């Protein structure tokens, strides 16, 4: 096997056997299977649904589920590697052909890849590590009417609740700002926005 | 906040033994700023300065604390209002001196009371930086800008007393999160202007 684009490591032995089995599927069957695969790639959390759809496919096309799962595992190696390495659809096609898939099926898959890769890329970027990600912000502001030390106060306060994701848990942080602090905070955040926009 | 009692004014007459007007001034300031629990040590010092017995000093210090806090609580700003607090037979010059000292300090004391009132943890400082993420384990090449925001938060002043606890919290925001946050902050600003213009 020549140099592959989607990985630098040697491919498991079973893969060429799986590609050979794939070639036995009709164009229609391959297209249906590809659809199931891409739906899973778009929503990787829907594992249950993916397994159900695979099992339906197996039943409808009279294929045993075990071998089908192995085939699917082999196929998925390519899009996963392609995503990491920002591969083009030509490169994906070339890799499938190098692995033993027919030209027709490889081209079809590469086409589907071209259509779906912007969404998949955005998904992958979204999964990138974030430290203490700000998830939500709630606020309220009001007037302090009085206190135990001052009968009449009449000052404005602003309270923010920040919901922060620390690792896998959510943490709530409560802070209070005075009015001048709020305006300076708003001003700084607008500067951040300008900065972020100039880099987009 | 302690309420003014009749006995307080009698105790205040001990100030007549003070060495100077500045000494009275300083004692007034210290009595206002001290929490009720801190009046003990102040009384001990007053003992020495005024050559007064311990009981007398304690009563004086407590009376000054109550008087100054009472004035600040009720927001009395006019000389007449403060003068009218004193009983008829109170020493005239001392009454005028105390009123003058109180008027001098009232706005600083008001600010002090406001600064030390209970509140949620307060924002004391914020810093930010913008990073560009170029690579990660899920994608080897990208150019995604992100913002790191560091908020310095001080715990409730009333709990910490003289050694405030300041913690730093660093938060990461994506561009989308920042846009949503700015939308929220803009709404706050609009509502604040609406309230201000009423």
SSE blueprint:
The complex is a heterodimer of chains A (200) and B (198).
Chain A: H1 14-23, H2 27-42, H3 47-60, H4 65-84, H5 89-99, H6 103-126, E1 133-144, E2 155-166, E3 169-178, H7 179-199
Antiparallel strand pairs in A: 1-2, 2-3
Chain B: H1 6-12, H2 21-33, H3 39-50, H4 54-74, H5 79-83, H6 92-115, E1 122-133, E2 144-154, H7 157-160, E3 166-173, H8 175-197
Antiparallel strand pairs in B: 1-2, 2-3
Helix pairs in contact in B: 1-4, 2-4, 2-6, 3-4, 4-6
Describe this structure in words.
The complex is a heterodimer of chains A (200) and B (198). Chain A is of the alpha+beta class. Helix content of chain A is 58%, strand content 17%. Chain A has seven helices and three strands. In chain A, helix 5 (89-99) packs across helix 6. Chain A is elongated. Chain B is an alpha+beta fold. Chain B is 55% helix and 16% strand. Chain B has helices at 6-12, 21-33, 39-50, 54-74, 79-83, 92-115, 157-160, 175-197, and strands at 122-133, 144-154, 166-173. Chain B has a three-stranded antiparallel β-sheet. The two termini of chain B are 34 Å apart. The relative contact order of chain B is 0.10. The mean pLDDT of chain B is 87. At the A-B interface, helix 6, strand 1, strand 2, strand 3 and helix 7 of A face helix 4, helix 6, strand 1, strand 2 and strand 3 of B.
